[in-house]
């Protein structure tokens, strides 16, 4: 794994509780489906932060919002993962909860049932430009785009980062929520972002193009660096309107694909901070993704999600 570079990584995003139910084959409507069920710490933003720390970034910070019901547990888990968390405790809403239904067939594909709870109630009052003190890179979870208060916080964070010359990365997060937000609105909101890290489906949705390489190329006319995550097919790196690198995935036997994209993003950002170029950073992302899919849950080894 890479050693940390100069400056911290600040992640702003969601911290949620994952309830992971692993079942085999179709769900049986109206009756029981046998499953293995675990409650684990999650959230795309929190997962990215944990993977960046696991991949050698020495100073990883996280801003998120949780309910009083699980604030202590989440802070403890993040601290154990090497993340300096600033968790705002919402006075009303409970911690967000995601039910992850994972088919234990060959692809270990998952379906999410999401109650965002406190996670999308981050607001401009939770932000301060001083959060960027000592920060070399800012990463924003795309889930911030999907509520009015967190959109306003995202805009404030982008403005602060622009004023300080801190490069910003963003993961679009969800095709379902992106469809509701709209492509034009998304591109307007992410103006000024330096790195975009969509999945294949997100890239195709944002461009209307069926081919991931074409989608990556088109997006790189809007954002300077685009890295499209292709799962078992690796990743594409694009800039200035063209794909310039195709990075292969590492072989892996998937158990649970929850958080694999977050693992890629965390390792990618850690590698950039350590001085790697985008192609090599994407290779580190693919390494982390392979490790992630072999585990249950969205976090790296060492925390509650560790496989025994």
Automatic annotation (TrEMBL):
<feature type="domain" description="Carbohydrate kinase PfkB">
    <location>
        <begin position="9"/>
        <end position="299"/>
    </location>
</feature>
<dbReference type="InterPro" id="IPR002173">
    <property type="entry name" value="Carboh/pur_kinase_PfkB_CS"/>
</dbReference>
<dbReference type="Pfam" id="PF00294">
    <property type="entry name" value="PfkB"/>
</dbReference>
<dbReference type="GO" id="GO:0016301">
    <property type="term" value="F:kinase activity"/>
</dbReference>
<dbReference type="InterPro" id="IPR011611">
    <property type="entry name" value="PfkB_dom"/>
</dbReference>
<dbReference type="InterPro" id="IPR029056">
    <property type="entry name" value="Ribokinase-like"/>
</dbReference>
<keyword id="KW-0418">Kinase</keyword>
<keyword id="KW-0808">Transferase</keyword>
<protein>
    <submittedName>
        <fullName>Carbohydrate kinase family protein</fullName>
        <ecNumber>2.7.1.-</ecNumber>
    </submittedName>
</protein>
């Amino acid at each position: 794994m890479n050693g940390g570079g100069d400056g911290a990584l600040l992640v702003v995003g969601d911290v949620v509780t994952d309830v992971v139910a692993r079942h085999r084959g179709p769900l049986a409507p109206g009756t029981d489906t046998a499953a293995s069920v675990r409650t684990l710490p999650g959230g795309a933003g929190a997962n990215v932060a944990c993977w960046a720390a696991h991949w050698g970034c020495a100073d990883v910070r996280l801003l998120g919002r949780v309910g009083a019901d699980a604030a202590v547990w989440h802070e403890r888990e993040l601290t154990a993962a090497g993340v300096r968390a600033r968790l705002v405790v919402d006075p009303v809403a409970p911690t967000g909860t995601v039910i992850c239904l994972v088919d234990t067939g060959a692809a270990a594909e998952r379906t999410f049932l999401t109650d965002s709870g406190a996670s999308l109630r981050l607001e401009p009052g939770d932000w301060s430009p001083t959060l960027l003190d000592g920060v070399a890179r800012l990463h924003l979870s795309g889930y911030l785009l999907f509520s009015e208060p967190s959109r306003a916080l995202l805009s404030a964070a982008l403005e602060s980062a622009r004023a300080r010359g801190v490069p910003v990365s963003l993961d679009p997060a969800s095709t379902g929520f992106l469809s509701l937000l709209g492509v034009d609105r998304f591109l307007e909101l992410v103006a000024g972002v330096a790195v975009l890290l969509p999945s294949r489906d997100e890239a195709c949705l944002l461009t209307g193009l069926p081919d991931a390489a074409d989608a990556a190329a088109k997006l790189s006319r809007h954002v300077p660096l685009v890295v499209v995550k292709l799962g078992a097919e690796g990743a594409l790196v694009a800039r200035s309107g063209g794909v310039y690198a195709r990075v292969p995935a590492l072989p892996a036997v998937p158990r649970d694909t929850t958080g694999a994209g977050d693992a890629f993003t965390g390792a990618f950002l850690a590698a950039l901070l350590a001085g790697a170029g985008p192609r090599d950073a994407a290779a580190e992302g693919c390494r982390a993704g392979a490790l992630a899919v072999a585990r249950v849950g969205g976090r790296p080894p060492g925390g509650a999600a560790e496989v025994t």
